[in-house]
Amino acid sequence: MIILGIESSCDETSAAIFSDGVMRSNIIATQAIHEQFGGVVPELASRAHQQKIWGTVNQAVQEAGIALEEIDTIAVTNGPGLMGALLVGLSFAKGLALRLNKPIVGVNHMDAHIYANFIDDPKPEFPFLSLTVSGGHTQLVLIKDYFDHELLGQTRDDAAGEAFDKIGKMLGLPYPAGPVIDRLAKDGDPDAFLFPQSLLEGYEFSYSGLKTAVLYRLQAVSEVEREQFIKENLNDLCASVSHAITEPLIKKVKKAVREFKLKTVVLAGGVSANNMLRTKMEALAKKERFDFIAPKMAYCTDNAAMIAVTGALKAERGLVDDLSLKPFASL
Ligand code: KG4
Ligand code: ZN
Question: Cα(102) to centroid of ligand 1, in Å?
């Protein structure tokens, strides 16, 4: 079976070809236009998707060395995401499905982040825990079987990636700041600044307090000296912020592993690329004796490979849709 995956939920236009358990191509067209605005501008995202979608799909098909007509199933993100952005990918997928007379499979973007862990070996064994951390979500999900998930808890306010991006903006870093903070944190001291770590009941998270704490710390320095202060302490600030963001994640994973006696934990979503998070997870896995799996870097942030593999897993189970498939911004 040859599957075409299409992703357009936010600011990456992406297409991938997956067949016989191998990812043949995974093309990602990043939209640089948002950088100057310090965040994703929905209307501009829709327009850029519209401009890039055909070229991206065409490139994925060519790189995989197949003809468009050989595609058996089209998997496409139908939520959650920006409505206008989702509509571009979904409408394109429907047009192609109609032209090729092939089934369409709607894929939940958050599920796809989790099933990105099924692209390469070793594949996680059920049941397992997923810490799904992206720009829009921070969730602990118990994965009992294929597409049988229980949400244990999520963030009450900002997502982990959002915290990285918003704090990065305060530090004058470009959007998205997550990868930049990650890099700068490597040469910093995580204990240099004591920022609050939210520890809510159960499996909930909160990052708005941290955001405010960093703002107050910066405002404690006079305006004329602030830029210099940030410059001199940038590595330490980044390391301390990363520590405050990752520590609650690690503590909740530990709690869930113990409560549900789990043997496997996976990371999912853009923040799973974070080095401090990965290092802490590796240490916890050793101590608590569970297998820790994370997607390779190219499959952490938004991509269509994860949509294609999830589409394949759904199609194998008869979970296919038709042309009445609709986009849901808050799926
Ligand atoms: O999954 P994703 O690509 O898009 C959403 O579905 O939201 O995640 C994007 C988020 C952004 O907030 C970005 O700053 C963050 O993931 N991110 C990182 C790293 N790479 C991406 N955060 C921390 N460290 C990284 N290395
Ligand atoms: Zn995502």
Answer: 33
Ligand closest to Cα of 138 equals 1
pTM, two decimal places: 0.94
Q: Are strands 264-268 and 128-133 parallel, antiparallel or unpaired?
A: parallel
Condensed to tens digits (0 to 9), the pLDDT of residues 250-280 reads 999 999 999 999 999 999 999 999 999 999 9
CA of 132 from ligand 2 middle (Å) equals 9
Q: Which of 83, 25, 88 is nearest to 59 (CA)?
A: 25
d(CA 131, CA 154): 10
Domains, in order of start, for the chain: 2-114+299-316 (3.30.420.40), 123-294 (3.30.420.40)
For residue 321, give the 3-state DSSP assignment: strand
Work out the mean pLDDT of the chain and round it to a whole number.
Answer: 97
Angstrom distance (rounded) from CA 141 to CA 205: 13
| Of 120, 164, 122, 156, residue with least CA distance to 139 | 156
Condensed to tens digits (0 to 9), the pLDDT of residues 288-316 reads 999 999 999 999 999 999 999 999 999 99
Minimal-distance CA residue to ligand 1 atom 14: 178
Look at strands 73-79 and 2-7 and give their pairing.
Answer: parallel
